[in-house]
Design brief:
With about 130 residues, the chain is mainly beta. It has one domain (about 10-130). The protein has two helices and nine strands; from the N terminus they run αββαβββββββ. A five-stranded antiparallel beta sheet has the order 8-7-6-5-9, with no helix packed on it. The chain has a four-stranded antiparallel beta sheet with strand order 2-1-3-4. A hairpin with a 3-residue loop joins strand 7 and strand 8 (about 115-125). The longest helix is centred in the middle third of the chain and has 12 residues, at about 40-50.
Length: about 130
């Protein structure tokens, strides 16, 4: 199993993270690693598809500041984004979303501050997402 199922407190003290709860009771934590060419989010998707389970809870944040998305959604969306400037500054973002029908609400948060910067609705057919049916 290539998913992180134990909380590494030292790692999470210094890194923004996401956590998901699966329908089989397993809790998965982001590890910010690529294993066999797959990101942590893609590995959760593969695990769900291989084990016929779905995400039933999703939160993200930094240290004790966690934001919880709606539970038991049909779709969850996650992307890391990095914005760099010619001056050498970098800004990190989590782009997250959840939805049940053809529309998914997407939010962009600056990290590690966990500050909401943008919000939009997208048609699920136009969004790469992780189905949890």
């Amino acid at each position: 199993m290539d998913i992180q199922t134990t909380l590494d407190r030292e790692f999470y003290e210094n890194n923004p993270r996401w956590e998901v709860k699966l329908s089989n009771g397993v809790k998965v934590y982001s590890d910010n690693q690529y294993i066999n060419g797959f990101s942590d989010w893609e590995r959760v998707q593969n695990y769900c598809n291989s084990n016929d389970v779905k995400i039933v809870g999703f939160c993200f944040g930094f240290r004790d500041h966690l934001v919880h998305l709606q539970d038991d959604c049909k779709y969850y969306y996650f992307r890391r984004r990095l914005k760099a400037s010619f001056a050498g500054t970098e800004k990190s973002y989590f782009v997250v979303g959840a939805g049940n029908h053809n529309i998914i609400e997407i939010s962009k948060y600056s990290m590690p501050e966990v500050i909401l910067e943008e919000k939009e609705e997208r048609n699920i057919n136009d969004t790469i997402s992780m189905g949890t049916q």
